[in-house]
Amino acid sequence: MKPVSGGAAMMSTRSVEPSRTHAVSERGFLGVSALLFVASTAATVAWCTSMSGMGEMPMPGGWTLAMAWMPMCGQTWLGTAASFLGMWIVMMVAMMLPSLVPMLWGYRHSVRTAGGTHLEALTALVALSYFAVWAVFGLLAFALGTVLVTLQMRWPMLARAVPVAAGIAVLGAGVLQFSVWKAHLLARCREAGASCVLPANARTAWRQGMRLGLHCCGSCAGLTTILFVVGVMDLCAMVVIAAAITLERLAPMGEHAARVVGALAAVAGLLLIACATVPG
Questions:
Q1: From CA 236, how far away is CA 248, in angstroms rounded?
Q2: What pTM value is reported for the model?
Q3: Which residues contact 4 (CB under 8 A, 6 or more apart)?
Q4: How far apart are CA 202 and CA 222, in angstroms?
């Protein structure tokens, strides 16, 4: 056997060091992601449990209004909006992180391949930008929800139409799953982590997260509508919707999974309409 020269040994050591650093970085990324998921899930469960203990307000038409849309005793509408936004962000982290982590993983690989640095900071910026888009979406949903709640409380006739309107909304969300618009946005979401915008810096990372967030909000519009209709505090609904979103994002045949989910939602919508319109 020929002895290994000092230069060869040094080159071997240098080649091993980046691979070790890469492995440590990826383990850290997965560890932080897991901790965020566990913490956000625990906070969501605690919030839903506390809100369900407050009960719901009976409304004309035989349905009940979740207290998440109403100010608590002594609370202003601004305080209610802030409380809802905090809950919404935590809930979105719990629901969207399973499908977001693989996309962030792909982004990290693309940045590393392109020779980018500050990988952890860039990954965090993409995630922050992504959830910032969801925060804006939540504020818009809260504003629309409070307007509808106010109208329903003023006009009982409008409140009585809510069960039928809910069924129509779920049916429409199911039909939306079959649309070209949904397929286009879903494809953009599935491809989002495959590359990074060069140069890989803070500005492009923030833009990449916003672009992914916009595509994601659009792609999830129908499923998010179902969540609001069924009940934003309903843990079972959250789990089902989160599973559907993750499946259509990560499954090899995600577009077919989206159609299956759409068919199930359409059937559920028709059943809700039937239950609301058939007497007795």
A1: 19
A2: 0.86
A3: 12
A4: 32
